[in-house]
């Protein structure tokens, strides 16, 4: 795992996609913000129990960026997920490209006083699978047969 993240560009990420042997990397928040249009609604793909998933647009390719919600509650789950993903490499498992664990201090007003708060961002980056979720695929198929039969 390469711990140097600051210099990674969208082009580097694109090169990783082409190189099957490239290891997952730590990715800078600024890169993930850039390719998701600052996590814009237009680039949202879907939502799960713990995260929102966005399209990350590179020059010629697309990746999926999973942004965890309630990061304080699910820190252990995030660490466990990264740990597992780093160990798995299989043709039937979506390819893991890297993660971002960013914490920044921000002055916030609390109880009438300014306090320094930690703002956490926890993200995972995967190869993009263009055919939608299994649920959509199955229900789409069922709807298709219902429409054809009746
Ligand atoms: N690599 C990917 N490529 C394309 N779409 C994806 C990718 N990963 C997730 N998605 C989309 O985003 C949705 C949410 O994914 P997410 O992994 O957060 O949750 P989930 O697997 O559906 O449920 P859970 O919260 O139980 O993990 C998925 O249903 C899918 O439509």
Automatic annotation (TrEMBL):
Q: Which GO terms describe its molecular function?
A: ATP binding; protein kinase activity
For the Protein kinase domain, which residue ranges apply? 39-150
Annotated residues for binding of ATP: 66
Q: Does the keyword Nucleotide-binding apply?
A: yes
From the UniProt record, list the coiled-coil ranges: none
Alphabetically list the UniProt keywords.
Answer: ATP-binding, Nucleotide-binding
Q: What protein am I looking at?
A: Protein kinase domain-containing protein
Which organism is this protein's natural source? Triticum turgidum subsp. durum
């Amino acid at each position: 795992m390469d711990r140097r993240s600051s210099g990674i560009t969208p082009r580097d990420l694109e090169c990783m996609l082409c190189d099957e042997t490239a290891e997952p990397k730590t990715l800078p928040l600024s890169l993930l913000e850039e390719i998701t249009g600052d996590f814009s609604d237009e680039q949202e793909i879907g939502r799960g129990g713990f995260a929102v998933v966005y399209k990350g647009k590179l020059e010629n390719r697309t990746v999926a960026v999973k942004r965890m919600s309630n990061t304080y509650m699910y820190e252990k789950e995030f660490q466990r997920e990264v740990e597992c993903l780093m160990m798995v490499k299989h043709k039937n498992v979506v390819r893991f490209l890297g993660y971002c664990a960013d914490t920044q201090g921000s002055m916030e007003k609390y109880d009438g006083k300014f306090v320094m708060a930690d703002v956490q961002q926890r993200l995972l980056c995967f190869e993009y699978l263009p055919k939608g979720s299994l649920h959509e695929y199955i229900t789409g198929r069922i709807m298709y047969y219902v429409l054809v039969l009746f």
